[in-house]
């Protein structure tokens, strides 16, 4: 776990530790490459251990498994040409809409060109979700909004 080892490969930047901390003593800070990692204010920390319990790396159960890779793309070539990653998200969302789902969350750029998770209710403005193809997205705002509803 990154908070104990400071080994960057032991953190996915999910912000779960920051969100669960009852004393708000964990802040996510960007490294030189722009990836987020937690920094603990030890003066405020009460050593409750919630950050360790919520960490996906701290609770990872190692099991033997071969490499698995899934891939997919939209059947419609026009849809694929409009998207950065084969329009798989658009295809999955379209299928969910047909099944009666009304909320679709995806990564989109905001007005400051920062990537945020957004809800495209009733699949309005799907074009906002076509252009983002990055490995990490800031989840803090989205997690907080979901926890309040």
Structural summary, described in words:
It is a single chain. The two termini are 30 Å apart. By secondary structure, the chain is of the alpha+beta class. The protein has a two-stranded antiparallel sheet with strand order 1-2. Strands 3-4 form a two-stranded antiparallel sheet. The protein is 27% helix and 13% strand. The chain is built from six helices and four strands.
- Count of helices? 6
Biggest sheet: strands side by side, in what order?
A: 1-2
Which percent range fits the helix content? 25-40%
Low-confidence stretches: 134-138, 140-145
Number of strands: 4
For the biggest sheet, the summary is: 2 strands, antiparallel
| Percentage beta strand | 5-15%
Tell me the radius of gyration: 18 Å
- Average pLDDT number: 79
- Identify the overall geometry: elongated
Structure class: alpha+beta
Provide the succession of SSEs.
Answer: HHEEHHHEEH
Whole-Å distance between the termini?
Answer: 30 Å
């Amino acid at each position: 776990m990154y908070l104990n080892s400071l080994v960057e490969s032991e953190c996915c930047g999910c912000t779960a530790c920051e969100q669960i901390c009852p004393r708000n003593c964990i802040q996510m800070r960007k490294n030189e490459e722009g990836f987020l990692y937690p920094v603990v204010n030890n003066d405020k920390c009460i050593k409750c251990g919630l950050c360790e319990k919520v960490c996906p790396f701290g609770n990872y159960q190692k099991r033997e498994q071969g490499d698995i890779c899934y891939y997919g793309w939209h059947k419609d070539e026009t849809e694929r040409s409009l998207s950065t990653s084969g329009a798989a998200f658009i295809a999955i969302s379209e299928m969910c809409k047909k099944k009666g789902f009304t909320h679709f969350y995806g990564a989109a750029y905001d007005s400051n060109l920062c990537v945020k998770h957004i809800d495209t209710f009733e699949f309005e403005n799907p074009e906002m979700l076509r252009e983002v193809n990055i490995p990490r997205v800031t989840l803090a705002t989205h997690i907080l909004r979901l926890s309040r509803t």
